[in-house]
């Protein structure tokens, strides 16, 4: 008997949206049958709700151990399930210690015990002086590595220089592991906002597009020199789109992500003092962000990831509204799918596009493209059922994040996550709101 049989008039498969019956055995998709097929066992019919592959977010700051008061594996993975996310990859910084050695990775893995409700993998970190730790981290199973080209905001994760990258990239090229790069090149520490610190325009001017553009140009050169898989995280400058497109056309092993907040919000709509919008790189003007959308739809930008980077409310400086001292990070993990779908549906994109941008293409980056990110026979039955034609207003009380500070509060979004399945087990349902079969997440390695 199958573990589960799901039926829908809108199953989002790689070849398109189809009516289908999904037969799940031992946590995998055993068969995809025509809609009217007779099958042995009870059938869960979700009607016109869409079934998509579970969302994969490879850019999340979970912050445990050491800064568990900022987030943590329990709250992050609960929020993930409530948003249809079945796999997360945790960034190597904001936890203490940072993930720059195999010993630190072991501490992070130990901290997941009894708290892993979704699948979680880890990026290792590249910082000055840790080139000797790279092979050990690879042997321990990290999915790739992350580096900053400007101050990360955390003093124990300093930015890497070009010389540091040159030491590490040949190793990663040999193992075919990606180097993820925060692309901003600045003077040491940057200048910070000039003038009124509450003015968003001043914060935006303090991190110009040129910082990103120069950093992207550097990474294109190094990617070509070392043939090292290189991934540009959270692209916000539209100026970099043309050189990235040219580099990809030359066949370089280069991929690019942007974040939901660069596609959903525009600088013109951010009032002074609204530090809940502070992130780095900053949210730019509408004309810029429209170009990001075009690049995503053209395939130049490969996918979208949240860069979920929460912090306690006091660190966001909500009272003072000071962009200079506020923590730079946006909490959005649970809202990844509806935020992107809200903008995508307005631009004529389809649920098939959404599945590529949130599941299939991120799965490739993290080395899981052979078993996750698609609704196909033999793949893991990590699935999300979505009422794509229903909207909701974001309220603090519905968020599972440890802290409820988010620029999406009071926004009307489209796409209600009705159910989330992990390896064929129902782990979350929207009505009535409930988590089931918790602690089913797995630690991912290459």
TrEMBL record:
Supply the NCBIfam families for this chain: allantoinase (TIGR03178)
For this entry, the protein name equals allantoinase
The lineage, from the top, is: Bacteria, Pseudomonadati, Bacteroidota, Cytophagia, Cytophagales
Q: Which GO terms describe its biological process?
A: allantoin catabolic process; purine nucleobase catabolic process
Q: In which pathway does it act?
A: Nitrogen metabolism; (S)-allantoin degradation; allantoate from (S)-allantoin: step 1/1
How does this polypeptide assemble, per the annotation? Homotetramer.
Q: Which cofactor does it need?
A: Zn(2+)
The molecular function GO annotations come to: allantoinase activity; cobalt ion binding; zinc ion binding
Swiss-Prot/TrEMBL keywords: Hydrolase, Metal-binding, Zinc
Gene3D superfamilies in UniProt: Metal-dependent hydrolases
EC assignment: the record states 3.5.2.5
* Originating organism: Hymenobacter montanus
State what this protein does: Catalyzes the reversible cyclization of carbamoyl aspartate to dihydroorotate.
UniProt domain Amidohydrolase-related: residue ranges: 51-426
State the family it belongs to: Belongs to the metallo-dependent hydrolases superfamily. DHOase family. Class I DHOase subfamily.
Q: How is this protein annotated for GO cellular component?
A: cytoplasm
């Amino acid at each position: 008997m199958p573990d589960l049989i799901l039926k829908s008039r809108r199953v989002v498969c790689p070849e398109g949206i189809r009516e289908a019956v999904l037969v799940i055995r031992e946590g995998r998709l055993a068969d995809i049958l025509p809609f009217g097929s007779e099958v042995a066992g009870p059938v869960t019919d979700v009607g016109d709700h869409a079934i998509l592959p579970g969302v994969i977010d490879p850019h999340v700051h979970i912050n445990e151990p050491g800064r568990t008061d900022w987030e943590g594996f329990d709250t992050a993975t609960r929020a993930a399930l409530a948003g249809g996310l079945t796999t997360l990859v945790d960034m190597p910084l904001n936890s203490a210690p940072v993930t720059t050695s195999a010993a630190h990775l072991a501490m992070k893995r130990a901290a997941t015990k009894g708290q892993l409700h979704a699948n979680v993998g880890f990026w290792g970190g590249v910082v000055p002086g840790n080139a000797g730790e790279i092979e050990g981290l690879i042997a321990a199973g990290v999915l790739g590595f992350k580096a900053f080209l400007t101050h990360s905001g955390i003093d124990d994760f300093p930015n890497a220089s070009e010389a540091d990258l040159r030491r590490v990239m040949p190793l990663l090229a040999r193992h075919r592991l990606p180097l993820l790069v925060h692309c901003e090149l600045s003077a040491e520490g940057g200048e910070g906002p000039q003038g009124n610190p509450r003015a968003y325009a001043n914060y935006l001017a303090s991190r110009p597009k040129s910082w990103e553009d120069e950093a992207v140009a550097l990474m294109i050169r190094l990617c070509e020199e070392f043939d090292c898989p290189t991934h540009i995280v959270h692209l916000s400058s539209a100026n970099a789109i043309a050189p990235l497109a040219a580099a990809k056309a030359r066949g370089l092993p280069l991929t690019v992500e942007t974040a939901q907040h660069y596609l959903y919000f525009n600088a013109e709509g951010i009032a002074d003092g609204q530090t809940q919008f502070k992130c780095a790189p900053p949210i730019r003007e509408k004309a810029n962000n429209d170009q990001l959308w075009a690049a995503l739809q053209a395939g130049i930008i490969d996918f979208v990831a949240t860069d979920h980077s929460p912090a306690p409310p006091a660190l966001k400086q909500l009272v003072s509204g000071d962009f200079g001292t506020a923590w730079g990070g946006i909490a959005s993990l649970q809202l990844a799918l509806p935020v992107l779908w809200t903008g995508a549906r307005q631009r004529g994109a389809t649920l098939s596009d959404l599945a590529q941008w949130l599941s299939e293409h991120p799965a490739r980056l993290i080395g899981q493209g052979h078993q996750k990110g698609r609704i196909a026979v033999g793949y893991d039955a990590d699935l999300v059922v979505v009422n794509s034609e229903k909207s909701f207003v974001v309220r603090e009380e519905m968020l599972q994040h440890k802290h409820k500070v988010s620029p999406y509060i009071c926004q009307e979004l489209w796409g209600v996550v009705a159910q989330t399945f992990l390896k064929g087990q129902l782990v979350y349902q929207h009505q009535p709101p409930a988590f089931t079969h918790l602690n089913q997440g797995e630690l991912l390695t290459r």
